[in-house]
Design goal:
The protein is of the alpha/beta class. 32% of the residues lie in helices and 26% in strands. It has ten helices and eleven strands. A six-stranded mixed β-sheet has the order 7-8-9-4-10-11, sandwiched between helices. Strands 1, 2, 3, 5 and 6 form a five-stranded antiparallel β-sheet that branches. Helix 3 packs across helix 4, helix 3 packs parallel to helix 6 and helix 4 packs across helix 6. It starts with 21 loop residues before the first strand and ends in a 5-residue tail after the last helix. Bound molecules: adenosine-5'-triphosphate. The site of adenosine-5'-triphosphate has 16 residues, from strand 2, helix 1 and strand 11.
């Protein structure tokens, strides 16, 4: 059952444990980098078991919002967040919550494939060892590689360097590394932007498989990609002022609704390709 308090972030076990449809709820009043207001007033629920796509013009804060959902932005000294982000009802920014534990349950895959300079096996085993996993590491590594559609390609060379793989394979390796510790949620920040069309298609197919076991949030520049894989879409816009560009959520809904029947004029213009 759920054992989530403000000070202990614990992954719920069992479907009945979570009464809400949202794995993550956030009310981002303001996100600053130093004096710069990057994002304002955005509520972005991440629904359980689906893929939520974040779309919008460059600089509207998609990555900033995504990285706020697992405290990845804590690594940036100038980052400041006013608002709340809850994971299964627990505030992940509450005093005493360990950000490493937050990232254990809410994993992340980055734009550039970034395998560590170590063997394929050790890349996937990395988080398990970090978390002092007591079970069979080889079994978990295999499962993660199977779920990342990479096992058959690498099973005979697990001791080769992760860096020896192609770009698309490296990205699938990073996905295996992220899911080896069995997170609940996977945050994917433009995971295909460094890949060719074939590798992109493989990752998109993989995302559709991953959502059977994980909740996924995906930042993408590619609106077609959002229509192909996302169940829900959040569209962010920007206000342009003297102090710079500040992003905010304009509209969120089922992907079909956002692309075919948007409620906001700005969304209509964006999905029609009238600005980028
Ligand atoms: N580490 C940082 N320090 C200062 N400003 C930052 C930092 N990261 C992002 N920003 C600024 O915050 C704003 C939002 O950036 P972010 O990368 O979140 O937008 P985005 O919508 O993901 O953009 P893109 O689609 O171009 O990747 C931008 O103005 C950016 O310059």
């Amino acid at each position: 059952m759920v054992t989530a308090t403000a000070h202990s972030i614990t992954k719920p076990i069992g479907v009945e444990a979570n009464s809400s449809d949202n794995v993550i709820d956030c009310h981002l009043e303001e996100i600053h980098y130093g004096d710069f207001l990057a994002v304002r007033n955005s509520q972005v629920p991440i629904k359980k078991g689906g893929i939520t796509g974040f779309i919008g013009p460059s600089g509207c804060g998609k990555s900033t919002v995504l990285r706020s959902l697992n405290r990845m932005n804590d690594l940036i000294p100038s980052f400041r967040l006013k608002g709340t982000v809850t994971y299964h009802g627990s505030d992940i920014y509450a005093k005493g919550v360990d950000p490493v534990l937050v990232r254990r349950y809410i994993g992340m895959v980055f734009q550039q494939p970034n395998p560590f300079s170590m063997s394929i096996f050790d890349n996937v085993a990395f988080g398990l060892r970090l978390n002092r996993y007591k079970g069979d590491i080889a079994e978990r590594v295999q499962l993660a590689l199977e779920r990342s559609a990479l096992w058959t390609e690498v099973k005979d060379k697990l001791q080769s360097s992760g860096l020896s793989l192609s770009g698309g394979q490296q990205q699938r390796l990073c996905i295996a590394r992220a899911i080896a510790t069995e997170p609940d949620v996977l945050l994917m920040d433009e995971p295909c932007s460094a890949l060719d069309p074939i590798a992109t298609r493989q990752i998109e197919e993989l995302m559709l498989e991953l959502k059977k076991n994980y909740t996924v949030a995906l930042v993408t520049h590619n609106m077609q990609q959002a229509t192909r894989v996302a169940d829900y879409t959040a569209f962010f816009g920007v206000d342009i002022s003297q102090s710079g560009r500040t992003g905010h959520l304009v509209e969120m809904g089922l992907t079909e609704q956002i692309f075919n029947d948007p409620k906001q004029e700005l969304t209509k213009q964006y999905v029609a390709g009238e600005f980028s």
